[in-house]
Amino acid sequence: MSLHSTRYLCSCSAGVLRNSDGRGLVVRRHFARLASPKEPSPRRKSFYALLLLPAAGAAGYYATLDAQQKRRVRVTGEGIQRFWRSLKIGLTISLDYWWALRGLNDLSPEYAEAIQPCHQRAADRILSGCLENGGLYIKLGQGLVSMNHILPKEYSETLSVLQDKALNRRAHEVEQLLEEDFGVSSKELFRQFDEEPIAAASLAQVHRAVTHNGEEVAVKVQYIDLRDRFSGDIWTCEILLDLIALMHPNFGFKWALQDLKGTLAAELDFEAEARNAERCAQELSHLKYVYVPKVMWNRCSKRVLTMEYIAGCKVNDKDGIKSIGLSLKDVDEKLIKTFAEQIFHTGFVHADPHPGNVLVRKGADDRAQLVLLDHGLYDYLQPQNRVSLCKLWKAIVLNDHVQMKQYAAELGVQEYFMFCCLLAHRKLPFPKEGHKFLPQSRKAFLDLDKAERGKLREQAWESMMAVLKGMPRPMMLILRLLYIL
User: Fold this and answer.
1) Positions marked active-site
2) What is the DSSP letter of 344?
3) Residue 189 in contact with residue 179, Cβ under 8 Å?
4) Which residues of 319-335 are buried (b: 16+ CB within 10 A; e: fewer)?
5) Confidence band for 272, pLDDT divided at 50, 70 and 90
6) 22-36, 97-111, 357-371: which has the minimum mean pLDDT?
7) What is the pLDDT of residues 402-416, one digit of tens each?
8) How far apart are CA 78 and CA 369, in angstroms?
9) Terminus-to-terminus CA distance in the chain, angstroms?
10) In 324-382, which ranges are continuous DSSP H helix?
């Protein structure tokens, strides 16, 4: 080792580094400062305290709140998360359509080939968002499924899994809600209360219980935070639909959300549902093959509905119906007669008769008896509308376009042909004299080239959207009922 190197090492070990001109740079103090950091200045301490003070104050305030107030604070925070998640999904879907279809003629085969994967990706993202957000988003997704007559099949097929999905719940929420509404626990309300629900949906879950009198009941308990979430979630969806409509002018489904907004508000009132059930039972009492469970009013509130427990098979469970010795033909006929009675005679119509809401059991005559559940969604058809709708159905069967036009107008719909196709859930024969954008026959339509047929389909889509937007609300629910049946 050279003399210079030795001197260099000695200088370092002594804490002094000497450079070529002999001047010394003391480093010992530098390393000492690293080993013993300097205490923050009083000014910096004050700055840190100011930063921590709001957080400490918020935590202290939260600790003073009761359970209901804490839930509302939590719902607000979660609502912000749902908003940003939904916004991200909405913008991603919108940009995906724009990017994948840019520069393509919407009447070209390339467009048709490119749009189907877009539909599927959009449906997958919507499904993921509904499952993550839960609650009303699942209900909105179910609403999209019921619009399978106008939405691409990728949407209805992908989102159909939401029919069996429910909101993820925190432990002890049911007990908390019962105490808020009745001031007592489930043990005081009932002799026995099964904590595990026997059914769950987007707005509520159902528990089996036994009253102190020994009556077996079904207790429908609303998810505790739905009312707190309602306005914020609807507002979020409205903003997203406005943004998407701005980017895609042909996409105009905000009217559907406005309609669903009204139905959801009605479904959140379980006392109104109890009154609907009793009215339905009274008006269908002459049909001995229809049964509506009795309401236990002393255990009902806006968020809790207690009714007589009835066991049975779902109306679409063919094997289950056969296993108890009942005829599928008999069930089918009674189902149609029951809802025809409501649509054309009483006018008070159950608008959500999906399979989970219609049970089948063996009646006193050993034949099929229908049990109607979930009476939250009803609408009333005025007598004149019932008469017009009845005559319209007759005109559709007879292919009488003059009368189709007349009775559709009486129901408030000017675009009669598309309206009748929606009601019949099938393509109807073209009017002989033609109709607006329609040729005089289906053969004449097929003789057109692809571009002309594509233009007519686009006009048909716009016509159908105009029909749905302008349709009176009761007719919208009737249309939904017919598609479910």
Assistant:
1) 352
2) I
3) no
4) eebeeeebeeeebeebb
5) very high
6) 22-36
7) 999 999 999 888 888
8) 44
9) 97
10) 328-341
